[in-house]
Specification:
Layout: H1 18-45, E1 51-55, H2 59-67, E2 72-77, E3 99-101, E4 119-125, H3 135-144, E5 146-157, H4 162-169, H5 193-202, E6 205-213, H6 221-230, E7 240-247
């Protein structure tokens, strides 16, 4: 596996900007875990080159290109310039022929669906919570573009995490207000494990792997203690959900 903390070495012309550095600092543990999941699934699919689609292009898209050089790495998301930020620094260039512009909220309109080459593996990490369209419609859209017996990996925050439960216990809403920014409105809806399992069953997928994990890097001593605490509690108290679905 590529060493995630040394990713800055991949950009010799200039360092990552401050926003990208901060984002990577928080998500590098999640990237490492997600990459290990992709590697496990990749071995199951084929010895030949495959097609992988990363939804919501980010630093992770670049990691896919480096770790799977023989495979075709595609990306789907909003307009390139609109989606720039800490998760997608300017140093990462997306080839026009491998980047598909599409707002997943438009999955509810069949006439707006675009043409995407059939993919063996689709990754939708930290995206679902940013959509206002029903997740069943989004997964039905993706189901169409996944090859028979292909895989879909979903990562999303756990709505029932320990910190969210504690916030509600003390009368505080754990979810941020929708931002006054149509291009980056924040989280519309977070999901529980039971909800995601139910959604998968309605959209033509079977669950291949399901796990709750606290994989966001702690930013201070309090967060380190919190993360350690969640390790001793049931999985459903942890901060992140990873679900691997197989098309049926």
């Amino acid at each position: 596996m590529k060493e995630i903390p040394n990713i800055k070495n991949d950009f010799p012309d200039s360092d990552l900007d401050e926003r990208a550095q901060n984002y990577l600092r928080i998500h590098k543990r999640r990237y490492a875990y997600l990459l290990s999941i992709v590697q496990q699934i990749r071995k199951k699919i084929s010895e030949d080159a495959i097609r992988i689609l990363d939804i919501g292009p980010s630093i992770f898209t670049n990691l896919l290109k480096e770790n799977f050089p023989k495979d075709s790495i595609l990306a789907l998301g909003l307009d390139n310039e609109q989606s720039r930020g800490g998760h997608l620094p300017m140093q990462i260039q997306l080839n026009e022929g491998q980047f598909f512009r599409f707002n997943l909220n438009d999955a509810q309109f069949r006439e707006k669906w675009i043409q995407i080459p059939p993919c063996d593996l689709v990754i939708m990490a930290e995206v679902l919570e940013h959509l206002y369209t029903a997740p069943t419609l989004v997964l039905k859209f993706l189901h169409t573009y996944i090859k028979a017996s292909g895989y879909l990996i979903i990562q999303t925050p756990n709505a029932a995490s320990l910190k969210n439960r504690l916030s509600l216990l003390f009368g505080k809403n754990p979810f941020e207000m929708i931002r006054e920014n149509a291009e980056n409105p924040g989280h519309f809806r977070e999901y529980t494990t039971k909800e995601l399992i139910k959604i998968a069953g309605k959209t033509g997928f079977e669950i291949s792997h399901f796990e709750c994990k606290s994989y966001f890097n702690p930013r201070n001593r309090f967060e380190k203690i919190y993360m350690s605490t969640t390790n001793f509690l049931p999985e459903t108290f942890r901060d992140g959900i990873t679900m691997v679905l197989r098309k049926i």
